[in-house]
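Re: that chain you flagged

S.,

Sorry for the slow reply, it's been a week of failed gels. I finally had a moment to sit down with the sequence you sent. For the record, here it is as I used it:
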Amino acid sequence: MRFFHQSLKLNNVCYDIRGPVLKEAKRMEADGFHLIKLNIGNPAVFGFNAPDEIVHDIIINMQNAQGYGDSQGLFAARKAVMHDFQSRGIMDVGIDDIFIGNGVSELIMIAMQGLLDSGDEVLVPMPDYPLWTAVVTLSGGTAVHYVCDEASDWNPDIADIEAKVTERTKAVVIINPNNPTGAVYDKSILQGIAKIAREHELLVFADEIYDRIVYDGVKHTPFASIDPEVLTICFNGLSKSWRSAGFRAGWMALSGNKKIIVNQAGNGYLDGIEMLSNMRMCANMPAQFGIQTALGGYQSINDLVLPGGRLRDQRDEVLNLIADIPGISVVPPKGALYCFPKIDTQRFNITDDERFVMDLLHEQRLLLVHGRGFNWKEPDHFRIVFLPDKETLSDAIRRLRNFLAHYKQ
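Prediction finished late last night. Pasting the C-alpha cells below so you have them in one place:
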C-alpha cells in the first residue's frame, strides 16, 4: 500500500503555538477536562467583541459582497488605509500601494513568495512570531535570527543585525510592538535598522498589527516614517486593535523607495506581488466593508489600554502575580497582549521547555506556549496571554505558582 509523506518543504517548518501541546490540550478537553488557555491571542474568546459599528456595516453590505472584488481590495477600504498613514505623517502611500488580504498571514505569504529564491536570507527577530520564520522557509529562503536583548527591554541588538547581513540577505523583519515579548521599540533602534537597510540595500517588513495596543504612555513609531530611502512594507489589520480576528481582514502597504521594485520588463518584485494577489482572486469581501468604519470611527481600543482599561488592568495583574513566584522574572510589556517570562532553568532543572509546558498542562490544566516555539534560543522562557479576565488570570498564575513550588524536570 502506498504511503504519502508530508512535503519535504515542511521539514524545517514549525508552528508550535498550535503544535503538540495544543493537540494534547484538545484531547484532554475531549475527555472532559476544563483548561485555562493562555496560549493564543484571540480576543473574542475572552469577551473582547468587535465594535458594533463594524459588524453593522458588514451586515448591511452583505448583498454587495457576493461577487469577486478588485484583487487589491475595495477602493474605500484602501483609501481608509491611505488616510490612516497620512494621519501619521506618511504621505507616500497611495491607493495602488495597498493590498487587502485575508488577514496579515496571507499577505506575509504573498510578500515572501514574491521575493525569495532558494538560498536567499531574511533577518528575523529572535524571539519572533513563528509564522515569519515558517513562511520564509516555505518560500525557499533561510531565516537568519537576530537577537532581541532582554536586558534592553527586548529591543533588537543592532550590532547583531549588522553582523548577520550577508550578500544573500534581501530583507529584515521587525515586529513592533513585538509578539511574544510586548516590546515597543525605541525610535533610535528603528533608525539603526533603517541605516543598515539603506547601506546594504535591504527591504524592511514591518509587522505592526499591535500598533494601537500600547501602555504607560508609550508611543509607537511606524517604521515607514523613519527613512524615505528604505522600501518598507507594513502589515496591519482588524484582528487585534478592533478585536475582529475571525473576519480575516488585513492590509499591506508599500512606502519609501518604490523605484527598486518596478521595472519596464514587468518582472520586478511589485509585479510578483500583483500576480500572487490576482491568483487568489480577491480577499474576503464582507470583511472589507468593515475596514473604513474601523479606521475612521471611534478608537475604542484606547479605552482598553489606558489606566483603568481592561487590557491595562489585566497586564498589571499578571505582572504583580508573577513577581511573587520564586524563579520567575519578566520584562514588563509596553504593548501587545503578551508577556514573555524568564524561568530559572537551574532552579527547576529545565532542559526541555516544551516538556515543561506539557507537564504544566497535565498537572494544572493550564495551557501556555514554550519559548522555543517562538524560535528563542534557550529553554528558559514561556509566553502568557493576558486576555482573560482578572479572576481567570489570578487562578492561572496561582496554578503556575503551585506547580513550580515542587517542579523539577
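What I noticed first: The CA atoms of residues 63 and 164 lie 51 Å apart.

Talk soon,
D.
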